[in-house]
């Protein structure tokens, strides 16, 4: 028998992205109102220079190099008015020094700042008046010393945030410093998450009943989708009953106005594949491509008619590694989540590892301090413990049947490991 055609992962991801395009809305939110962790929808440009003017990097004295005798040479200068942060810059009278605080604008005529530690006083005194003097011994009289030039960090019009980037605390601070108050982000997609299978029981303490297993996929997928920016609605588990499956999904889609359904299990070739059975019922339009990847080859994609509309449905395999890997490689890009970092790293192996030549294999792995990547656990899709210990996915591409020590593998960095 000729093996079924395998769909390249990239093609399936493109289908998922297209499927979710209609439900990926946007919203404008204030930077100071829960922007952290959101995903930028549009490029943002600086509205101002940063810094907005030449300013002082130190508490010290604004002076001109023409009034100094050189490095290490003592000089006494009359004091002008003090410049505090927030003051207008004003001017430096030739032959004088003006006390200046960190962040204060450099006065016209000054071209360097000497820190207060290079003065005879060693500190500022409230007794020092505008008619006083200061004795300075500059360690260096180089122009520009301890001066932060206007625009030296960011120029007006510079791109300060790109589409698809995660809003981190540092990026939020940068946007605010560049004069922005609001940011356009992807609106969270509301996702109903459901685990299928008569053997699956809600997570609980202790041993499950004979023949049953705890639901790992529900909590795991909910966490992964939330990390990708989704708003998750958990529904628990359903047995291998297609009509009950659709009833539960439709009720939760309606109650929560959900945008997307994600299920695990019921998409393979067994006798009790509940999602496949549900696809034969009215209001369901699903296809079941086999993806050229391992784990996670069996997939389902399509729509569910609920609440008077067609709701996108991503159906993942039931083994926990397959389900989480599917979420990582398919749901994340479909939701517009930022791409993970990828590196090409040499693999460290004690013996050669086989790989299915027609499939891209995603091995759970750890990045070592040496810069190598080492596989964690075996390749099987039930080995969730290895995934939990991993901080990377080592990708063995299509066309490779054996991986040997030192081979370079594209490596996808994921949260985990010792973090």
From TrEMBL:
<dbReference type="InterPro" id="IPR036135">
    <property type="entry name" value="MoeA_linker/N_sf"/>
</dbReference>
<keyword id="KW-0460">Magnesium</keyword>
<keyword id="KW-0500">Molybdenum</keyword>
<protein>
    <recommendedName>
        <fullName>Molybdopterin molybdenumtransferase</fullName>
        <ecNumber>2.10.1.1</ecNumber>
    </recommendedName>
</protein>
<dbReference type="GO" id="GO:0005829">
    <property type="term" value="C:cytosol"/>
</dbReference>
<dbReference type="Pfam" id="PF03453">
    <property type="entry name" value="MoeA_N"/>
</dbReference>
<dbReference type="GO" id="GO:0061599">
    <property type="term" value="F:molybdopterin molybdotransferase activity"/>
</dbReference>
<dbReference type="InterPro" id="IPR036425">
    <property type="entry name" value="MoaB/Mog-like_dom_sf"/>
</dbReference>
<keyword id="KW-0501">Molybdenum cofactor biosynthesis</keyword>
<comment type="pathway">
    <text>Cofactor biosynthesis; molybdopterin biosynthesis.</text>
</comment>
<dbReference type="InterPro" id="IPR005110">
    <property type="entry name" value="MoeA_linker/N"/>
</dbReference>
<keyword id="KW-0479">Metal-binding</keyword>
<dbReference type="InterPro" id="IPR001453">
    <property type="entry name" value="MoaB/Mog_dom"/>
</dbReference>
<dbReference type="GO" id="GO:0046872">
    <property type="term" value="F:metal ion binding"/>
</dbReference>
<comment type="function">
    <text>Catalyzes the insertion of molybdate into adenylated molybdopterin with the concomitant release of AMP.</text>
</comment>
<feature type="domain" description="MoaB/Mog">
    <location>
        <begin position="192"/>
        <end position="337"/>
    </location>
</feature>
<dbReference type="InterPro" id="IPR036688">
    <property type="entry name" value="MoeA_C_domain_IV_sf"/>
</dbReference>
<dbReference type="InterPro" id="IPR038987">
    <property type="entry name" value="MoeA-like"/>
</dbReference>
<dbReference type="GO" id="GO:0006777">
    <property type="term" value="P:Mo-molybdopterin cofactor biosynthetic process"/>
</dbReference>
<comment type="similarity">
    <text>Belongs to the MoeA family.</text>
</comment>
<keyword id="KW-0808">Transferase</keyword>
<dbReference type="Pfam" id="PF00994">
    <property type="entry name" value="MoCF_biosynth"/>
</dbReference>
């Amino acid at each position: 028998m000729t093996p079924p055609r395998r769909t390249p992962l990239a093609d399936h991801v493109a289908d998922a992205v297209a499927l979710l395009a209609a439900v990926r809305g946007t919203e404008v939110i204030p930077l100071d109102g829960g922007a952290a962790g959101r995903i930028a929808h549009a490029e943002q440009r600086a509205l101002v220079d940063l810094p907005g003017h030449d300013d002082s990097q130190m508490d010290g004295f604004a002076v001109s190099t023409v009034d100094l005798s050189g490095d290490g040479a003592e000089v006494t200068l009359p004091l002008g008015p003090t410049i505090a942060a927030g003051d207008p810059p004003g001017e430096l009278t030739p032959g004088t020094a003006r006390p200046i605080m960190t962040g204060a604008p450099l006065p016209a005529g000054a071209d360097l700042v000497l820190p207060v530690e290079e003065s005879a006083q060693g500190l500022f005194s409230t007794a020092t008046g505008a008619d006083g003097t200061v004795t300075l011994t500059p360690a260096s009289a180089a122009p520009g010393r301890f001066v932060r030039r206007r625009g030296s960090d960011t120029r007006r019009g510079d791109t300060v945030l790109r589409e698809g980037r995660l809003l981190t605390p540092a990026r939020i601070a940068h946007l605010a410093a560049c004069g922005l108050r609001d940011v356009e982000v992807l609106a969270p997609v509301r996702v109903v998450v459901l685990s299928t299978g008569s053997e699956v029981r809600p997570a609980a303490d202790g041993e499950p009943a004979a023949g049953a297993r705890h639901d790992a996929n529900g909590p795991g997928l909910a966490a992964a989708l939330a990390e990708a920016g989704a708003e998750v609605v958990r529904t628990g588990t359903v047995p291998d009953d297609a009509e009950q499956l659709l009833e539960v999904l439709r009720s939760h889609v309606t109650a929560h106005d959900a945008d997307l359904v994600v299920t695990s299990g019921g998409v393979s070739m067994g006798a009790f594949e509940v999602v496949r059975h549900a696809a034969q019922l009215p209001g369901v339009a699903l296809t079941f491509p086999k993806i050229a990847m391992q784990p996670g080859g069996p997939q389902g994609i399509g729509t569910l008619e609920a609440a008077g509309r067609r709701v996108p449905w991503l159906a993942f395999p039931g083994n926990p590694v397959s389900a989480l890997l599917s979420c990582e490689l398919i749901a994340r890009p479909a939701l517009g989540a930022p791409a993970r970092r990828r590196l090409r790293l040499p693999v460290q192996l004690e013996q050669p590892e086989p790989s299915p030549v027609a499939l891209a294999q995603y091995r759970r792995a750890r990045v070592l301090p040496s810069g190598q990547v080492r596989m964690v656990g075996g390749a099987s899709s039930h080995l969730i413990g290895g995934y939990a210990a991993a901080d990377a996915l080592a990708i063995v591409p299509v066309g490779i049947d054996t991986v040997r020590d030192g081979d370079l593998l594209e490596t996808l960095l994921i949260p985990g490991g010792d973090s």
